[in-house]
Amino acid sequence: MTESRPSEVMAGLGIIQLDDPALRRSTRPLRLPEEAAELGWLVTRLAAVADQVQRRYDFTRTGMGIAAPQIGVDRSVAIFRPPGAAQLVLINPVVLSAEPAEETGWGEVSEGCLSFFDIRCRVPRPQRIVVLHLAPSGEELTAAFEAGRLAGDVLHEIDHLNGVLCLDRMRPDGRIVDAGDPSAS
Asked: Active-site residues: which are they?
C-alpha cells in the first residue's frame, strides 16, 4: 500500500488544495460584534482543522497557520500558532507597514503551505510587519510581528485572505522545491 502524498492528507483533512479557485478570491470582512457568533464558529473550525494537521505533522519548531479560505470560507479570519506561544487570531487584518520598506531588502525564506503541502517556495519576506486587526469584541488592535519568521508567517496568512499565495510572491528567479519533510525548515 502506498502512503498518501502530503497534499492528499491535507485534502482529506478538509483543506482546499491549489486547483480550487476559492484560494484566489479575496475574503469578506466580519462585522463585529454583530457577527460574533459566526466568528466563534469559524475560529473553532479553523482550530479543529489545525489540531488535525498537528496530530499528523510536527510544527513545534516552525509554527503553522490556516486561513478561512483554506477551509472554503470567504471570511477574513486566520489563525497562526507560533512555536511555543499562544494561538493568534487575526480578524480583518491589514498590514500597515513592513520593514524594510522596500521589498528588495526583504530576505528570502523557504515557505510551505497546507494548500500545496508537497512543495516549498523560496519567497521574500519582511523582517517586521505592523498589522491592524480586530479583537473578537470589535475593538481595533495594532500588533507588530518580528520575532524570527513570525512576520513572514503572519503575512502568509494575511495573503491568503487577499487571494494571494506564496507562489505569487516568488521572485522571477525563485524556485519551487519538493517538500520532503513539510514541517522542516
From this structure: 157
The CA dihedral of 94, 96, 98, 102, to the nearest 10 degrees, is: 110
Sheet with 64-67, side-by-side order of all strands: 64-67, 77-81, 88-99, 128-134, 140-145
* DSSP-derived pairing of the beta strands 64-67 and 77-81: antiparallel
pTM of this prediction?
0.92
Domain-by-domain residue ranges, the chain? 6-178
Residues 6+ apart with CB under 8 A from 95: 129, 130, 131, 155, 158
Calculate the alpha carbon distances from 166 to 91, 96, 120, 153, 171 in Å. Answer: 20, 19, 9, 10, 10
Q: What's the grid cell of residue 161?
A: 485572505
Length of the chain counted residue by residue: 185
Is 3.40.190.80 the CATH number for 6-178? no
H-helix segments, 84-125: none
**DSSP E strands, 1-127:** 64-67, 77-81, 88-99, 107-112, 119-125
Query: Residues 166, 156: contact at Cβ < 8 Å?
Result: yes
Mean pLDDT by 10 residues, the chain (185 residues): 84 96 97 96 98 93 94 98 93 97 90 94 94 95 90 96 95 76 42
